[in-house]
Sequence to fold (81 residues):
Amino acid sequence: MAQTRCRKCLFNQDSGELYQSIQELIASLSPEEKAGEEEYRRRLDVCRECEKLQNGMCLSCGCFVQVRAAKRKERCPWEKW
Ligand code: SF4
Fold:
């Protein structure tokens, strides 16, 4: 059966464990390290519209965008956020 993919989604349908690991990593960040919730969502909205996004990963920097966006001091390599 063909795998369902949507570039606008951060992950495809079989990424359950990976998704869980990323959520745990984000939850382990200290409040000082974390971006605010509004900023986090704004960043991910930009990533969702970006041609560099592939299955939750930024093809420019190789990171998972949810993790990068969750860290206050991180920036988009293309300065989109
Ligand atoms: S971090 Fe920047 S370049 Fe990478 S997917 Fe997000 S907006 Fe695109």
User: Anything to note?
Assistant: The chain has three helices and two strands. Residues 46-47, 50, 52-53, 58, 60, 65, 76-78, 80 surround iron/sulfur cluster (CB under 6 Å). Helices lie at 16-27, 37-48, 65-70.
